[in-house]
Amino acid sequence: MKGLSTKSLSFAYDDVPIIRDLNLVIPTGQISALVGANGCGKSTLLRGLARLLKPFSGQIYLDGTSIFQLSTREVAQQLGILPQGPVAPEGLTVRDLVAQGRYPYQNWLQQWSAKDEKIVQQALLITDLLELADRPLDTLSGGQRQRAWIAMALAQDTDILLLDEPTTFLDLAHQLEVLDLLYELNQNQGRTIVMVLHDLNQACSYADYLVAIKNGRIYAAGEPKLVMSEQMVQEVFELECHIIPDPILGTPMCVPIGRKAKLTSSQTTNFSSKFQIESNHPL
């Protein structure tokens, strides 16, 4: 089987189960989003898929082969990961960071080549960072830095990209900037992208495949229109909401109902009832 999949996969920290007996097939050539409440196991699953964690039990398959039968170099040449909150050495330039994506292809027989240089240039071009290539990473805006990390992942030249909360700590404009970039990579290059997202509406807008996780298990998986429901949000996030169509994309849009909304609704109902009674019984 091509792509990334798991069978009866479990992870645990200090014998405390985090991911439990999970079976998942990541759709090849599509964007998948992992969603769920804090602590449900999203990031653990993503790190596990990248072979950064050793499973308690079960298997992860990369193109039909157990990922644990592959060398670190082979995995890095097929699968790129952007962890949450990556940190680079002080003073590192954008170009230096992106060039690190070519390390899986370097050895004592094969040093830096014209092909490596070309791929780094392409990664900078795709992420619109050519003009910033010689700038220190720590002088960039949040959105620019995130693009630089994505460029490094692109320089690995892998078919699969795993991203852990790529929009965290970014303002709304920069969030959309990063998500649009990932969407274009998927559409133009056919990259398989798996990302952890907190914003349900962004997940529905950009993902082809939605995986809702509750307590380390898959609650539901499929197209956003099939997974995103008021019942799912209630049971996975313990939150009341209304699901309506996005007015532009037509994708499911979650409108949360907090205590203020309930109180306002109650006050409006009481006012309407009082007004109707007074109208029917004028002085």
Automatic annotation (TrEMBL):
* UniProt keywords, alphabetically: ATP-binding, Cell membrane, Ion transport, Iron, Iron transport, Membrane, Nucleotide-binding, Transport
Checking SUPFAM superfamilies in the record gives: P-loop containing nucleoside triphosphate hydrolases
State a GO cellular component annotated for this protein: plasma membrane
A Gene Ontology molecular function term of the record: ATP hydrolysis activity
User: Which superkingdom is the protein from?
Assistant: Bacteria
* Example of a GO biological process term: iron ion transport
Kindly indicate whether the keyword Transmembrane helix belongs to this entry.
no
- InterPro entries with a match to the protein in the record: AAA+_ATPase, ABC_transporter-like_ATP-bd, ABC_transporter-like_CS, P-loop_NTPase, Siderophore_ABC-ATPase
Domain (ABC transporter): give its ranges: 4-240
| Places the protein is found | Cell membrane
* UniProt KW Cell division keyword: no
Query: How is it placed in the membrane, per its record?
Result: Peripheral membrane protein
Its predominant location is membrane
> Any idea what this protein is called?
ABC.FEV.A, iron complex transport system ATP-binding protein
